[in-house]
Amino acid sequence: MRADLTQSDKDALRRCEKIIDDGLPTFVAVGKALRTIKEGRLYRGAGYRSFQVYCEKRWRMERSYAHRLIGAAEVTESIKTLPNGNKDGPSPCPQRESHTRELVKIKDPAEQSKVWTETIEEAEKRGENVTAIPIRETVRPRRKGKEEAKKTAVETSAFGLADGLGLAVEKPELVEAFQTRLKLAEIGRSIDALQRAIDNLSETDGSQEIVFQSVKMRIAGLKLDLRVAAPYSPCPSCRGRVGCEDCEGRRWVTKKRYEQLIASDDPTTSRKDRGQG
Questions:
Q1: Who contacts 98 (Cβ-Cβ below 8 Å, separation ≥6)?
Q2: Both ends of the chain: CA-CA distance in Å?
C-alpha cells in the first residue's frame, strides 16, 4: 500500500531515485539520495513499509550496504569542506566507497580529513594508488594509541581516572568531578543505544505517527548538552589546586573553557604548562 506523500515529498523521491538509478557507481550522490529517502521516509510513497524492504526490493541492496553508502557520503562531504591537517585548502576527495570504510570509524571530521590527506601523500611518495589497506594502517595506530594512552593514565592514576586529555587524575579534590565525567560518558552510551533503537523502530509498522526527525533532534540535543557540560580537564590556570576565577572555583573546566584558556595569551595557560603537579 502506497502512503500518501505531499507533492514535495513525491518530487523528492523521484529526484532521489533518478540519482540512484543513473549513478549507482557514484557513491556520494547515491549515499546522499539514500539518506534523504531514509530520513524523510519517502520509501512509503513507493509502496514499501520500511527502508530495509525498500533497499532490498527496489535496488537489490542490503540495508547494511545502503548505510555504508550513506556513511561514505557523509565522510566525503566532510573531507570536501574541511581543510586538511597539512596544508591550506580542502583535501581531494575519496574516489571509492571502500576508501571511506576505515575513515567512518574516526568520529572527528577534522581528524578524518587529516588521516585521508596523510594516506594519499604517502601513496604519492611511493608512486602507488590509494587503496583501503593503507587507510586502515593509518587509522589503526591512532585508534590504538588513544585507547592505550587512556588505559595507561587510568592504570597509573591513584584513583583509576583519566581526564579528557588522557592524563591521570591525581588530586583527591578532583575525583568526584571526574567520576561524574565517567557517569556522563555511560549515559552518552545509553543515549547512543536509544538512538539505535529509535532508528530500528522507524522502519516498523505502527510507528507512522512518530515524527522521527524531531525525536532524533531532541536525542542529539540531549547528548550534546551532557557532553559540553562534562568536566574535561583540571583548570589549566590554577591546575586544579585551589580553584580560581577562570574555573569559577571548581578546579576543573569543560572542553570549551579549556580550549579558550589554552588559546589565550596568558602564559599560565600555555599547553607547555598544562599539568596537575
A1: 131, 132
A2: 68
- Here the cell at position 262 is 589554552
Asked if residue 73 is part of any domain, the answer here is: yes
CA distances from 58 to 21, 61, 63, 107, 207 (A): 10, 8, 12, 31, 22
Q: Tell me: the pLDDT tens digits for 230-259? A: 999 999 888 887 778 999 999 999 988 888
Question: Are the C-beta atoms of 181 and 231 separated by less than 8 Å?
Answer: yes
Residue that the C-alpha cell 549515499 belongs to: 31
At 76, list the grid cell.
566525503
Domain boundary at 81, 109, 144, which?
Answer: 81
pLDDT tens for residues 50-77? 888 898 888 888 888 888 889 888 888 8
- What is the grid cell recorded at 57? 526490493
Final residue belonging to a domain, choices 43, 64, 81: 81
Residue 217 covered by a domain: yes
Using alpha carbons, select from 163, 150, 189 the residue that is nearest to residue 253: 163
Domain range for 37: 7-81
Burial of 241 (0-12, 13-18, 19+ CB in 10 A): middle
CA atoms within 13 A on the CB side of 186: 6
Residue type, 58: R
Residue at 189: amino acid letter: R
Burial (CB count within 10 angstroms: exposed 0-12, middle 13-18, buried 19+), residue 1: exposed
| Low-confidence residues in the chain, pLDDT < 70 | 1-3, 23-25, 82-91, 141-159, 203, 264-277
Per the structure, the count of domains in the chain is 2
